Amino acid sequence: MVTDHGGGVWSVQVPIPDNPLGYTLVHLLDTDRGPVLVDTGWDDPDSWDALVNGLAECGTSVGEVYGVLLTHHHPDHHGLSGRVREASGAWLAMHPADTAVVRRTREAPARLWLDYLIDKLAAAGAPDEHLVPLRTARAAGRGRVLPGERPALPDREIVPGELVDAPGRRLRAIWTPGHTPGHVCLHLEEGRRLFSGDHLLPGITPHIGLYEDPEDGTASDPLGDYLDSLERIARLDPAEVLPAHQHAFAGAPDRVRELLAHHAERLADLRALIAVRPSTPWQLAESMRWNRAWDELPHRSRNIAVAEAEAHLRRLVKLGLAEPVAGSHPVRYAAA
Ligand SMILES: [Zn+2]
Ligand SMILES: [Zn+2]
Q1: What ligand is nearest to the CA atom of residue 208?
Q2: 3-class DSSP state of 323
Q3: What is the mean pLDDT of residues 152-179?
Q4: Tell me, what's the pLDDT at 138?
Q5: C-alpha distances in angstroms, 156 versus 117, 124, 274?
Q6: How many angstroms is it from 298 CA to the middle of ligand 1?
Q7: Residue 115 lies in a domain
Q8: How many CB atoms lie within 10 A of CB 222?
Q9: Residue 309 pLDDT class (50, 70, 90 cuts)
Q10: In terms of residue numbers, what domain contains 308?
């Protein structure tokens, strides 16, 4: 399905198979050198067909694409980029912090990724019954079962604060780390419209976990980055937000305020919990509120939940409100 947003901007719904999100909105921006895409969609034959047909409905074709701007490296955004480049010769551009993630994913064998995940979950206090399926997969030589395991390496860097290569347009990159370390929004200055990727969505709180970096000790603070990035977008106050999921909307500062309040509440809840009893990230994830009861959360969702708990703990530590209990393994956190 295609929506004409006016002013030479369209969105194409590109389905994400077996995912409650439903689809990615791939945006098309008309430029003097041909269409520039913002994101490409999930790497699947049906998704590819939807993109190809959608571009035809916009009066162009995939072969005409001049360039692709990636808001971030996730497979529902970057999955089809390689195919688009093959079909068109278009350049692919991404922020270097996310390109680094792509490079790591391409180079690391799936086995290493599983080792990293198992170690991380064990250190966060995951019980054996949660780790058994992962250990079994590792022993059987299975890897991370995700499409786009060899995602395309971008050709260009998106430079924060600069205009991107969209001839005849003023489209400026805004670095909005948090959801991923190199997430960017793109501000179309004529009309003050913001392509917001996963940073700002009308009805979904984007996942904020720890950055998937085996080399990261305790230096990064993804939630802190995210909250700063949100405030940057509120100050920008775009007239219209064109997100990568759901639908276009107005009133970015109001939506930012809701998200800031949501995370402030989560931080306060966690701090109250560890003030009563020092706890592991896993125990805290169990007592946080999710979209369904903990017992009903699928295996993968629990991994995401514990990462979310850890991102909030990292923030509390940076604020001086929590600290790891010395010598605890798995690590427990106490109120500071
Ligand atoms: Zn994402
Ligand atoms: Zn997404």
Answers
A1: 1
A2: strand
A3: 98
A4: 83
A5: 30, 37, 45
A6: 19
A7: no
A8: 25
A9: very high
A10: 257-335
